[in-house]
Fold each of these.
Amino acid sequence: MTTKKRIAGVLATATASVLLVTACSAGGSTDTSGQSGDGPQTGGTVHMLQNADFSYLDPARGWDGGVNAFYRLLYRGLTMQAAGDAENPNEIVPDLAESLGEPSEDGLTWTYTLKDGIAFDNGDPITSAEVEFGISRAWDPQIGIGSPYLKTVIAAPEDYEGPYISGDLPTIETPDEKTIVFQLKQPFPEFDNVLAQVNAVPFPVGSGGGDEFINDVIASGPYTLDTYTPGSLIRLVRNEHWDPETDEVRKAYPDEWEFNIGLDAATIDERLIAGQGADADAIGSKLTAASLPRIQTPQLKDRVISAPAYCTTYMGLNTTKAPFDNVLVRQAVNTALDRSAVQNASGGTQLADIATTIIPPAVSGHKEFDLYSSEDHKGDPDAALDLLAEAGLPDGFEFTLDIRAQPAMQAQAEAVQQSLEKIGVTVNLNVIDTSIYYETIGTPSQQNHAAITGWCPDWASSASTFIPPLFDGRNITEKGNSNLAQINDPAINTRIDEIRAMADPEEAATAWGELDAQIMELAPIAPLVFEKGLFLPGSNIAGYHPSTNMTDLTIIGLKDPSKG
């Protein structure tokens, strides 16, 4: 949300910053990392301090960078993204499956075989029936509002509405307890990546209907839920039925995880900088701009870790609502925007690069261009006014902009406001609680004229998970919609299909970059910045490899669990 998602995909990370309140548990220290001294050890409690609650505990509903990382502690799928410290952390590897999928000669059927010794947190074995059931939940009209790839790639009857309404999904076959066979709509060479999505996880048959998983989980990963106080605290403890012999990625060093929620970003930074007591065992999200001058001491600089920008922060323009149904108006907004002001609001050059494209430079397929250029990226009000006059709006207009209830996003929104005031456009800010933000803007009936959000690649830093989720008009849904612009352009849709069918990855990457420019001529969004990250883990934290996309929590531990 990865609108990651992640919406991204969908929409960028829903969690803000994080902090701890209780001391770590004492206990013996066993080095299982192959390292000594500063390597992660088994035991203790790692604390995550954050501003906002996760969107959902249920992976069929949630889908953004912060909650996706959380899900890796609780849930397992047939495949998964490799560990954050792997030689290629974007690689897809087997998880519950013995190997990656075996495609048929025509690419329309993929077969997987389950490992032995895999179970839920109550000890019940995971079989092919639970895999089919859990995956089919993605089609439920109420629950399946998370990652869209299962529904866009796996064949299903046109009227299928998930297991609670329609029963078993006939295009996922389970010939025996260990074998799962998927039928696809069309060949999709990246199908292993689709099954690494957070909603492609097993659940006991018949469970999870309605709101059953709103405040509870059925875990298959190394941890299970001990305590959940919405908006305040999540405590995870070890799942005694998780067998590490079946899991080559998750190291699960800590005995417990504590997620302390509802802390403002300044407080989180203050505690991580001070690093006192149990705060030495804490991690958070990226540092705020206000804290950057304070981390210049040698001691703190040694703890700071940087991460490149894999995500695009942008303003989606709802093409179904006037005046953004007029391409000239959308082009005028892109032309008038002072992106340098948005960059400053995002923390300056240390934390953000100016974005003029959809695909960021770190993602395969990026093409450098700027269709709405201006001197120093400060906007061109005169050119924008000409476009508005041509559109029949010489005196400007008024619109509502949805934003998250976070200081950084509000600062970005205010920079947009001030830019557009110069062309007579009034921007009214609609502030939405972070925990429900993506669900709200992902419901077209609740969308206003525009929304600021972000998108990260869902796998392998590939533009194939950037362009289609945001601009394929055939995938606009009543809930969990990632196409915030609600653009449904036949030429874009056709080109997406053509690029997906390309067997040569380099040819496809080039084509995605060209399609990026083609889409931006229609201006359904206004790219703002590519946000980078500076992170400050506690001094007792080890195995921390932060990312602006998704930090792998499953390899993090404490250097000395006896401290705290």
Amino acid sequence: MNLTWKLFIAHTRQQKVRFLLTALAMIFAIGVVLWVVSAYEAIASQFDEQTEGFVGNYSVFVVPKDADQHISSDVINAVASHPDVESANPVMQFRMMFRRAEELPEGENRSRRGLGRLGPSVVGTNATESRHPLLEGRWLDPTTETEAVVSSGVADALSLTPGDAIQFRTENREVVQLNVVGIVQQAEAGVEFAMTRTKGGAPGGVNRGPASLAAYVPRRIVPRLTGSADATNLIEVRLRPAKTADVLGDTIASASPALELLRMEDIRSKISSGFAAEGARNQAYFVTALSILASAFIIFTTLSMGVNERARQMAVLRAVGLRRSQVAWLVLVEALVFAIFGWVGGLAGGWILLQILANATPALFPNGVQLGVASILLTGLCSFLGALLASIFPIWKATRISPLEAMAPTPMRPRTSRWYMLATVVSLLLIAVNPLLVYAVTLPERLRFVLILLLGAPATVLGFALLAPLVVLGVERLLSPLIALMMRLQAGLVKSQLSTNMWRTTGIAASLMLGLGLYTATQVWGHSMLGGFMPGRWTPDTIVKFPSGLPLDQFERIHQVDGIDSKRCLKVAVEQTKLAGDPLNAAERDSAVRQDNVSLIGVDCEKAFSGDDPLFQLSFVQGSREEALAKLKEGRFCLVPDTFDRLAGLKVGDRITMIPPNRPKDPVEYTIAGIVSMPGSNWITKTTGIRRHFVRTAGIVLAPETEVREDFALPTLEYLWLDPKSDVTGEQLRENLKSIVAVGPAARPEASGPGGIGPGRRVGGFGRDELQVTSLENVRNSMRRRGGAAVGAMGWLPLITLLVVSLGIVNTMAASVRARRWEFGILRAVGLRRFGLVKLVISEAIMIGLVASGLSLAFGILTGWTCLGLVRYVSNQWFEGVSTPLVVPWSSLVFGYVLTFVLCFLAALWPAISSGRAEPLSLLQAGRAST
């Protein structure tokens, strides 16, 4: 047998527990990777099936490039008459709420499924057959005006069966009732969700492909429902066998307005880049990188301990002829064996657990569990790359051992303070790389992202690992006296425990930092991103929406409603209107606040902005409250959010032009009187029904109420913005306002205008509630609760890494006790009690926890801060322009840090007890033999 293998086997027999613990930690680390990567592979295996289910029995779809445009009759005829087209079905689809015509009988179970946040679509079609399989009933007769077919999702939400009826309410308040004659299979909910992605990458855009959650109606009834001319915005095309969508390229290329083809591969690409798939894919990459680092630190700590403990042995071997290359191979073989055990054991153990889970919950794995190539390759990469990275320094250290060192003990800490100074300088330079790449350097986004991934992130981890010795010294000098006092030990005994073996302490602190630091980073990043959308306290608390509208003179009656403070109640005029010229460049690069429309809100400026305690407590970025109020009183002025300055460079005195939805040929112009900070305005418009026509909006623009009502034809009272009395809840206020609503709806003029209905516009329909009362405080609480749960869920992978790494802590503490047996024997011989020795080992664990906590907190805050810039400006431009203040959620971090100290304590418990039980003579004999 090769000498290297003989030496390795002999060492393994001597350190069986350490080998098993390290191998077990590697198996757990690789098992986590297998678990996550196999989950992504399970999602990816359904892409083709989901694509076929979404397109139905058609081959390709023709859609306008601009969602608000329509397809001309010339193009429709050209596509229908094309020799390679078997059939072409032009349709018009738009979003419109509808309801079940009759209430369900008392006691009948109601579905808990809703119609989605965006609402259902209505599809006007002349097709004589369904695009999707029929589940019940028959397909509609397009020559009638009384029939409808609904998708299975609509049927579940409204508890519909063939023979029931649904009702629509048009813009002119007419109620149209259609009989449901059939139910068709609906594509999976996640598919249409993936199709409604904006260019910036967030959900909630316009699905220009075929609708899924929908009611299919005869096309001839569409003008009656929408109040505008029937216009095609989608052509469903079935090509002849063996033909591809390219045959329509010339026809589509010459069309005006501009059109594009939506092919099968385009839809599959959308689905594969959807939030579910993208989230699973990113999680797989993240876990792979995390596992590589975890494996590296686990093996590094074990190899370093082995090199340190066998330094004299290696020196003797070098003295009797062992070459440096053989020493290097000895360390590398140990690393590779750990890698093989981790890879094979992780695959086997993870596969068994996945099979058990799949058998217990088959709904989670409809296609069964698959061990794909990606799972095998990525787990192997984690194991072997981690092993190779971990072996570099121990190999270098082992090959530097001189035969002369067999005669003297090997130093366990740097000989001079220069090493600490050099390590600190290098660490600070490395730590600065990532922030510079994210915030300071101007680079193309793709190049910036690659550099951050390949250079910035590793530099940050390595930088904080090199900073660990300085933190160790700081904890020893500053906190060891306090720990000694708490443990009732002499300060001198506690002070030198960590730095006695600096390499070992640094390795375990860096290992713990990997899990705890990333947990801190996810919490800091998540809560900071949540803070960017949290509604601020610059507005009154409650927004009331009367979807049907009330006469304006009813506002005086509202003042008398119990629970309303008349001095802090405003009637507001609301319209969601497009901006002329697209000043925010939404067509090229949209984001949460880079849109082509705004939510214009007309208010009584004197009541809203004046006084010592104004209803709107705005912070002015440009201009002042007094100057802006004077201009607003003059008329034709407005206040805009600070994003207009950051994204479009607009200043006070500039003009913005808006296009009224009901008079698109008569734009109106307002001059900017002030630029103000409106934190969370995006979420305010989302939750209160202020977004009237479009799914997204650039933000809130405030202007005088009288002008807004006149410019946008808003003669009715539809919104209130108020501060209710302190003892009144939103539900109580809603009940109190019902008497006002009972007066009856006011007529509201048609808002769709001659421009037609695009697929992203909502028209008419029944609202989700006849009276909507939204408390912004409740919105904030809901966001904290739901957002906090989502952010907390992101921390489970780092915490699992922390648990995996904790197995290495046991090795480290055991090695620390073994290395100091002579010292412990002397202490016991001169009078230190057994329990005192136990407390000494526990104190070391506490200080390791303090070092890891200090490193992790600094690492996590810095990483979270750089991730804010990474998400906002590099990896996901959807968040561009959103103001995200750095938030450190101390209450959310407590669990991770307490867990770290618990793990350190548990890891030290057995080594502490075993050393305390040993007799002084046995400690002296064992310690002498090892040195």
Amino acid sequence: MSAFTDALIAVARGTAGMTTGEPREPVRTSFADLHARARVGAGALRDRGLRPGDAVAVMAGAPVQVAPAAQAAWLAGASVTMLHQPTARTDLSRFAVETASVLRVVRARVVLLGAPFTHLLPMLLEAGIDAVTVDDLLSGPAPEEPLPADRPGGIGEELPALLQLTSGSTATPKAVRITHRNVWANIDAMCESAAIVPGQVMVSWLPLFHDMGMIGFLTLPQCRGIEVVLVTPQDFLSSPLLWLELIDRYRGTLTAAPNFAYALAARVLARAEGLDLSSLRFALNGAEPIDATAVRAFLAAGERFGLPSTAVVCAYGMAEATLGVSFHPWGTPLAVDTVLAADLEERRVAVPVEAGDRSEDAATRAFPLLGPPLRGIEVAVLGEGGRVLGDREVGTLHLRGESVTEEYLTVDGPVATRDARGWLDTGDLGYLVDGRVVVCGRVKDVIIMGGRNIHPTDIERVAGQVDGVRAGNAVAVRWTASGGRESFAVAVESRAAGDPAEVERISAGIRSAVTTAIGARPATVTVLPVGSLPKTPSGKLRRAAARELITPA
């Protein structure tokens, strides 16, 4: 029997719930009410012929609709796939083709549509895809017969609970198969590490089609009885201060966001007045990469509002591990490992910089320590030939444990994720320090110049600090320079992209800053208008696609 669905049913007997509709029309809905609606939906799904092990896809923006729709699928024994959502710029004809490809990969039996996407219903039906609105699904009578989740052994631990789409191109979709066992193991471990118990209050604007939003702030509260306040990414982007105002208003204790949001929050806090952020004890930053400068700026800006200096928790996670892999111990200060750049790039060893241990002009790199692995997860660093590396030796991070997936679903069918010893290759470069995880970057993105392994994130961080560059919108990619020499190129977004004089100033500033900080000169720099750089649905910059936008020198 699934411990996960047992927990959903148990929480429905309590008083916790979710608040949605801020800032215009806040409404609190208890998990008991959501569960009652979900039971209606589960019965309707069963009546449509769904059986345990089948797949349901969901596209909805409102958390108050996503929550009962997802729980309805789980109570019926089905898995949930949160579909990526179209934007105002989306080509709907291409979107329809890509969505159909995703539905084939996960073998979805039905698509559940909620606001603001119900207008897509005729398009899906015309394409031969079974679809229904969330409101229609939840509007019928309560089921008379027991649901699969009500029967002992009705939902097995190895049945899929989530088929989580990865952050790659939607044209070649890939989904991570997350079982009931995986979900419960990861949620249980995260709650233990972060001391998440009833009485805490979670606040989030994260998209629910991304694993951090869907699992961390929609699924976890429903199965652990944690009060949660949810708004949409659009709400946050239209008014970034809203995030912090909600933490104040609801005495939020836990939140999470990618790195750019903390940098943005630091700026808006500089103009804010009258906030009280003293309740916030756990603000997870799990972005790629985590910029310690942005974290420090957020903590400094929040100090006058009572924000604890230990509030930000740097973490490592990925969909293949359900969500969390390691958390920096909460309630302790930010820890940064500063290492000598030359040893990192040339010998793949993270040599720590101690006070007085280097000359003034020696280049360094700084990486946040991401804490020890969560309970039940092992992390190993492997080098060439699968050799297990020791502390501070840089290699590829590998994971294994009860919350780590066993397979991907792809256009070519299921693909195993683990090797013969149970290890999953994350594709991330990193190292361990006394059992704590450090991530340096992605293996596929490393730029090799003159025997040096240069991480694009280092270049991007420097370029992003040049005046006129839009925060969080700088990309460095491998580039073949004249004569076939391996080099790199930089692309940035700027609101001044239409001004030739400003473009030249920004380009020169990037070339100078990067050459000084990194010790290597970009082969070319391209300044693009705002909104040009391609991103994944979860907001990560797509380096390979960005390369196509770069203008040769």
